[in-house]
Amino acid sequence: MKIEETLQHYPKENLTRTPTPLQHLPHLSAELDVNFYLKRDDLTDLALGGDKPRKLEYEIAQAKAKGADYLVTTGSAQSNHARLTTAAARRLGLDVAVVLSHDQYHAIQGNLLTVYLMGARVEMISTEDHWDLEEHALKLVAELKAEGRKPHYIPVSGTTPHSCLGYISGALETLKQLKEQNVVPDAVYLPFGTGGIFTAMLLAFREAGFEMPFYGISVNRSLDKCFANLDKWWGALCELLEVDPSRPRGEYHLYEEFIGREYGDPTEAGLDAILTMATAEGILLDPVYSGKVFSGFLAHHAQGQWRGGQNILMLHSGGVPAIFAYADVLKAHLQKRGRL
Ligand SMILES: Cc1ncc(COP(=O)(O)O)c(C=O)c1O
């Protein structure tokens, strides 16, 4: 396949052991009368795992080629990306600063605790909107430059054209495992934050000749922004991989109705989804990303969309450390469901 060869031309730092497991979940499958497969990117082996090591492997390689000695990024108080950028910087011997929103989940718990433990420079900004932190981060970048440092700015969620290559690679790895396990999914469920993961996996599957529908569960943005982001990353990735951007994208659907009131809102459906997965399989999901993706699948299943042995593939992109910052919400939910 052509993109596989082109991908080899891009430099990559080694931040995690791969492949991550592709697991068939027998109990959940029996319960829902489907064959449910989970790609376990929560098990990448950098500081409690998740999607970011794949992205950062390509992004930091670009930064290092330009001589960067300092990484700067942004996110919410419970940013998984801040945790994993900090860990990546430490692993590669770089300095690191994270500019975070002082939102309601700012207790020294979960991801934020780990960021402090790994010694990042933390700047807390009083805003609820962590998508608005770029100007603060760029100011810090300018200050660091004035001090003679070589900072590299990584945008929120770590999504850049080069970082998306990490999920081209992740998708190719998944396709290889599907082939080995003799499984062709009937549907693929993915998170949609900035859309980096979704766009890259969609492109890689289509280039490999797989045309099953893709389902993207937005965790924060309205549909118009999701579609705009998909266009943006699609164009950028096609350019890097020398693919005609007008090639058909096949069937895909994006959903905004599982977000709740806002990003990070622990929806009732998301909390129930966490309990369902944990109880059936002993696998932990989180209230911000993976729980919401799974709640999207469960809603479609409840509507009768998936019954009768279909093969469902879902990506577990990580995020589990956030459960400790949401402990009060999870406790209340356990009480509500009579489990505490
Ligand atoms: C656990 C987890 N899953 C998914 C995403 C979203 O990925 P993307 O922005 O590429 O859509 C993030 C982004 O921060 C994340 O932390």
Characterise this structure.
The protein has 340 residues and is α/β, with parallel strands linked by helices. The chain has two domains: 2-50 and 160-336, Rossmann fold, CATH 3.40.50; 52-158, Rossmann fold (3-Layer(aba) Sandwich). 44% of the residues lie in helices and 15% in strands. The chain contains twelve helices and ten strands. It has helices at residues 2-7, 26-32, 52-65, 80-92, 110-117, 134-146, 161-180, 196-207, 223-241, 268-281, 290-302, 327-336, and strands at residues 22-24, 35-40, 70-75, 95-101, 121-125, 151-154, 187-192, 214-218, 252-255, 311-316. Strands 1-2-10-7-8-9 form a six-stranded mixed β-sheet, with helices on both faces. A four-stranded parallel β-sheet has the order 5-4-3-6, with helices on both faces. Helix 9 (223-241) links the parallel strand 8 and strand 9 (252-255). Helix 3 (52-65) packs across helix 7 (161-180). It is globular, with a radius of gyration of 19 Å. 49% of the residues are buried. Pyridoxal-5'-phosphate (PLP) binds at residues 50-51, 80-81, 157, 159, 191-198, 289, 317-319.
Taking the alpha carbons of the first and last residues, their distance comes to 52 Å
Give average pLDDT, whole number: 97
Strand fraction = 15-25%
CATH fold-level label of the largest domain: Rossmann fold
- What's the story with the biggest beta sheet? 6 strands, mixed
Task: Provide the structure class.
Answer: alpha/beta
User: DSSP helix count?
Assistant: 12
User: What is the correct CATH architecture of the largest domain?
Assistant: 3-Layer(aba) Sandwich
